[in-house]
Structures are given as structure tokens and as C-alpha cells.
Amino acid sequence: MKQIIECVPNISEGRDAEKIKRIASVVESVEGVMLLNVDPGKATNRTVITFAGEPQQVIDAAFLLVKKASEEIDMSKQSGEHPRFGATDVCPLVPVSGISMEETVKYAHKLGERIGNELSIPVYFYENAATSEERRNLATVRSGEYEGLKDKLSQAKWKPDAGVDSYNDGVKRTGATAVSARDFLVAYNINLNTTSTRRANTIAFDIRERGRVKREGGSLTGAILKDEHGKPMNEPGLLKCVKGIGWFIEEYGIAQISYNLTNISITSIHVAFDKTCERAEIKGLRVTGSELIGLVPKKALLEAGKYFLKKQERSLGIHEEEIMKIAVKTLGLDELAPFNLRERVIEYVLEDRMRDGKRLIDLTLKDFANETASESPAPGGGSIAAYVGVLGVSLGTMVANLSAHKRGWDDKWEYYSDWAEKGQMYKDRLLHLVDEDTNAFNKIMEAFGFPKGSEEEKTARKQAIQDATKGAIQVPLDVMQTCVDCMEVMLEMAKTGLPASISDAGVGALCARAGVRGAHLNVKINAADLEDKTFVESVFGTADHLIERAETLENEIMELVEGKL
């Protein structure tokens, strides 16, 4: 899975449209980074900018944005309603897919160090990137705001984590920047069958982390209870990392509960939904659907879909978009407006907008065959070997899913669901390799096109060809390994799967075996001209082992299949 992070810098300018455009546009100068949203606020004099991509490219883009903001915004002349202490006030990184929070923190530190070293801006790390517990809370880090920055920098306890640690003319202009790694914040509204804001609020107060003010006797109308300092006491709500309030939406003619889920790893969308349904029913109300604001990470809907499938005791080994459609329908995300996964899931938006040309796996079966049969040398045997493996493991996965749903086997659904999930994982890996094999071939062709005039150019060209060839060897080797792995699915289905589908397990095994042997031929032909013989010997040793393993599995599976037919 490709690593994707989101960056959401907040700059201290929300009124000058041209200035905002100049600052935000530098993001798109970095290849592979997609500018997703620019949201200015006039009263706050603040703009929230959102972009995403692979980690290194994102922090490169973030650095350019901070640099541009420091050139365009003079903090000594800035004012606004929102708390702030720098031209780029905050710059959080958010892990979206394929990357852990720990890894994201490392990128946040890398970005902060670069901002401090190259731009001489004081940098403070907060939230997950904080260097001490005292600095985790942004409000604490930003206390005193820009006006108090000179005094702050004079205090040893507030020495910046990176950048200059004294107040000078440069800092007077740029202020400071807070850099963090944080979880994805989801704006999520739940629809109720009422027009009463007050009733919506009673549920919101039940759910949100802050809860509600404590009252005498635990009633909603009793006198407010206060602590020894005379401050109202709060009764915590049911869910952590949730902010919420009820409101009436005139456009829809209903009341909603508007939630901010500040850490979906702690409180997910589906947990907030289910808990709201429970509290609504207790109060004689009903949840009719819900609404997601903006983009949402794929994992949030996948986790929701799997959660609801488990409640139904249904297999989880189906395609990811089908899993997410279960989430959309169960959560009622399409009640108020159509919910298009390709337009609302951040990874899909990036994938569709950043794709360079059409992928083989997006072609119809007919078009794929025609493309292969054309006079073009790619796609060739490597892509076909990978796709034969896709067909094989898809059959094995089908048998697992059918077995999970067999009448009388209800106690085994989780067992077969696990095997179906494995099959889906192998299928997705092989689908990726269908295009990757053609990409590897194209890289070799590109290397042959390098200039070869001077001796230096000849050396660079030769090295590029050798490097690209290694890549073209590794791809079919990965196909071999994955096809062998997926044969384990067919073996288990031949042993314990639905008897009526035993032939499908056999056909799947034969397809996967063909994928192994076909990819092996590509390993050998691509290795013919490679000068690194140590690399070649290592690859051939691995490939020979995989051929032997595939033959053993094929024989075992076909013996089981033939014996049961």
C-alpha cells in the first residue's frame, strides 16, 4: 500500500484572495502532491489549506508553503479573531493510509527541523510530535500568541524545538510555527426524526467527551452543581475524542447532531453512530441517516463496513468498495445526497486525480485482450502471468465466501471469512503487479533512451539500464511469490471448502501455477543481460525454490480435487 499523509497548514491570512492563492499554489509545484482544499475566513483572517500525497513530497510542499507564507505575511501588521502566533500558524501532518503515527511523527520532526534551520523560524512541536508532555496541547504552546512571542522566547522553558531561539527582525515578521502529527479529524453529522434542537442536544451531551453540566438529582433542570472554586462541574459523556452539539438544518427540515471526531482511532464513525442510535431510541427518537463533511480516509469506511458485516455474521473477504458500500448504506450516508466513494474517499480522490494514463486493470476484459494482442510489446507475459494469478486466487476466494455462507456452517463463517480476506489481499497485490510489470518494462525502454555521447553519459546510461533491469526481474519474482502464497487458499478450500465448488478450487490452483511458471520465464529472460551475477544467482535460487513449492502445492490440490469429483 502506498503511504499517504495529509497536511493541513493554517496561515494567518484570510482576506487577501490573491495572496492566499500565491501561497497555496506553491504546493502544486511539487510532483505527486495534490491540493485538495483552500478554505479562507475573513473574520478570523485565517485560511486552512489541505493537500496530500506521499510523505516526502508532502513535507517538501509544506516547507515551500511555509517559506512563501513567511514572505507574503507580515505578522507585525496582522490581526484576526482566531488565536495565532505565526504566518504559518500551525502545520499538522495526518497519516491517511499505509503509514503509522510513529512514522508520521518522524516526518513532522524532519519538516520542523528544516523550517527552523533554513528559514530561521522558531518551531514548536505539539500533539503526537511534542517533545514533552507540557507541549502536547496547542493552546499551551500558542499561549500569549504573537503579541507575547518576544517574552516567550526569552524564557528558557519555552526555547523552540527548532529554529532561532531569540526575538529578531525576522521573527518579528514571521512569528513562530507549530508543527505536529495528529489523527484525522472527521466532521460527522447524524440525522434525527425530529425538528427539536433541544432534543438533539440532549443526545449530543450524552455522547460527547465533555458531557454536560452536572445538576442536582441528575435531572436536566436541577440546580447547577459547582466545585470549590465556584466553577460548574461537568458530567463526562460516553465517548472520548468527540465534540458535539445539536442544531436544526432548515435546508433539510430536520435536527442533526454535529460531531467532530478528533481521533477516529479512539472513537470511530460507526461507534459514534451506534451509540447515538442507542441514546436516540431511549429518548423516543430515531436516527434516519448521517452525513460526512469533506473527505474521509478509506480506513474509516472500511472499518465501519467490516464492523457491520461482523454483526451480520457475513464474510469480510469481499472487495473493499463493496465493504464500504455496506458502511454507506448502514450509516445512511446517502440519505440527504448521493455518496460517491470515488469523490469522497481521500485515497480514491488522490488516485484518480494523480493517475498518469489508464491502468491495464481498468480495461475491460475485451480491451485488455486486444491491447495484449496488438503490435505493442507491453503488456507481455509478465502482466499476463500476474493476471492469471488474479483469476486463480479470485476463484479460491469465491469458494471461501460461498463456504462462509453455506447453510448449516454458521459456526464456521469466521474461519472462511479469514481465508477470503487472505485471498482478497493476494488478489489486490497481483492486480498491482499486472501494471507494475509493464511499468518496469517501460523503465528499461526509458533507460535505453538516455544520452550516450560522453563517457560520463555512457556510464550513467549503462547503470540506469542495469538498475531498471533489476526492477524488471524483481516484479515477476514478486508475482511468483504471491501466486505461491495464494495457492495456500486453494489448498485449504480443496480440503475443507464447499464440496460443490471443489472444481473451482482446482481451476484456481491451475491458474496460480500457470502464473508461477509464466513469471519464472520472465525472470529468466530479464536476467539474461544483467551483469550483477551475484544478484542473478540469488534471484534464481529463490525462483527455483518457488517453482518446487508451486509444483508440490499443485499436486496436493489436484489430488484432493480429483479424489472428490
CATH architecture type of the largest domain: Up-down Bundle
Tell me, briefly, the overall form: globular
Unreliable residue stretches? none
Spatial extent as radius of gyration: 29 Å
Major β-sheet profile: 7 strands, mixed
CATH class identity of the largest domain = Mainly Alpha
- Terminal CA distance: 39 Å
What class do helices, strands and sheet pairing give?
alpha+beta
Number of strands: 13
* Distinct helical segment count: 18
Estimated share of beta-strand residues: 5-15%
Number of domains: 3
Name the helicity range. Answer: 40-55%
Topology:
Blueprint: E1 4-7, E2 10-11, H1 17-25, E3 34-41, E4 46-53, H2 55-72, E5 88-97, H3 101-119, E6 123-127, H4 138-141, H5 149-153, H6 169-174, E7 177-181, E8 186-192, H7 197-207, E9 212-213, E10 234-235, E11 242-249, E12 254-261, H8 269-282, E13 287-293, H9 298-311, H10 320-331, H11 341-344, H12 346-354, H13 365-373, H14 381-404, H15 413-448, H16 455-496, H17 502-527, H18 533-564
Parallel strand pairs: 5-7, 6-7
Antiparallel strand pairs: 1-4, 1-5, 2-4, 2-5, 3-4, 8-12, 8-13, 9-10, 11-12
Helix pairs in contact: 1-2, 2-3, 7-8, 9-10, 14-15, 14-16, 14-17, 15-16, 16-17, 16-18, 17-18
